[in-house]
Amino acid sequence: MQHERVLVLDFGGQYNQLIARRVRDLKVYCDLKPCDMTVEEIKAYDPIGIIFTGGPNSVYDAGSPHIDPAVLQLGIPVLGICYGCQLIAYMLGGKVEHAATSEYGKRTFSFVKASPLSKGIPASSVCWMSHTDHVVEVPAGFEVLASTQTCPVTVYGSEEKRIYGVQFHPEVVHSEYGNKILENFLYEVCGAKGDWTMGGFVAEQVEKIRRKVGSKKVLCAMSGGVDSAVAATLIHRAIGSQLICVFVDHGLHRKNEPEEVMSVFRDGLGMNLVKADAAESFLSKLAGVIDPEQKRKIIGAEFINVFEKEAKKIGAVDFLVQGTIYPDVIESGKGKSAVIKSHHNVGGLPDVVDFKEIIEPLRDLFKDEVRRVGTELGLPDSVVWRQPCPGPALAIRIMGEVTREKLETLRGADYIFREEIAKAGLDKSIWQYFAVITNSKTVGVQGDFRTYENVIALRAVTSVDAMTADWARIPYDVLETVSNRITNEVKHANRIVYDITSKPPATIEWE
Ligand code: XMP
User: Cα-flanking dihedrals φ and ψ of residue 129, to 5°?
Assistant: First the structure.
């Protein structure tokens, strides 16, 4: 079945994928495509509406992206956002000017005329601006629909032509009724029915994967993390036992994790899942190592080593699955920034696996969309809502040397912390929460005896993307229970501290 669909034409702005995602959230399928699509290609795509995104240029810059004006004559509704809004005005004979000062941030705008775009939105509300140029005269046949004090043409449009321009960014959360404007464009202007759901996404991806893979073999490195788990489950739904997953048990996982991965994916879903038991080799390579970067490098290299051995047993495959999601795609395009930590992920695998092509079924999705796909596929909450865990796992939550004894103590403490956070109903609102075994011992008294044991730190942060984070304000009574339970139930821990540092200046993980 062909879904109704919207075309988001990319003029180079920062929030373009976010626009696409908002449209999908509003139950309308859409694709983000380069703005150099020809009119013929657009007609063939057959959208119910087109959105022109923002972009960093001025319409007057030499080399700024333009589009064939015939697009505006197709009779398809168009919404231009920021640069897109200026471009439409410019193409249709309106006037765009360079403002004396750029306008960034929150502004209050007011509608001056009702239109299908303003339905259900108060006369005045807050929007989020980020621009230097702005429209000063609307094209003939168009009307000014809203203004701010500094931007006289904040929204303009023509109900008859079904073409609108919005100077601010309706896709960002700071625009109070931004989502409503997008909804109005889709439902009031384009006449969308809203036939796009996560079920639709799953069905479409399953079809796509089946067509692509045919009867060939696919290999996946399963970490148990949300992204690789959802990617593998989606592919398994499409091609069943042609998918082979490898789970590397490096002996550094949290309590019960390897068991849970095997029970959900192999026993529950019937996946062809191989577990490589490699704890011995990881731990022996880590013996005596205390430098965090060295630990990370050893684990990254050993992971590839173990995976290569498993891949050799399996032999040549046609496809390698990667659980890449959209934020990873942006991150990797960010250019050169200082290396704070060398992240361990499955990035090195393509060099050691004999395969022809990479499949990335989640490449266009944001984290919460990935979780929704997971739920749609029937994965349990414990997998779908699993908090992010770094590739090197507990090795970088143990300060100093990684030993079996410290791993045991940390697993116990971490498990209790997780259990109590879940009991308090905080597990979905805290981004990450875990225990750390500090490399220091202190004196305690337990049962009239002196003890000299480890200090355990609890770390819990709120964040939206892990780039910045704040320490979570966990209620004292929850912390009290956690502290009591750890000191009573876990061996070799006699003092608990709570980390109250944000990122920056600290990082989320301790190493
Ligand atoms: P930091 O500690 O740098 O962490 O504030 C930011 C986020 O990244 C996770 N993290 C990792 N993820 N491989 C990963 O896949 C790694 O080596 C790694 N190190 C840190 C961390 O848990 C947090 O979510």
Answer: -105, 150
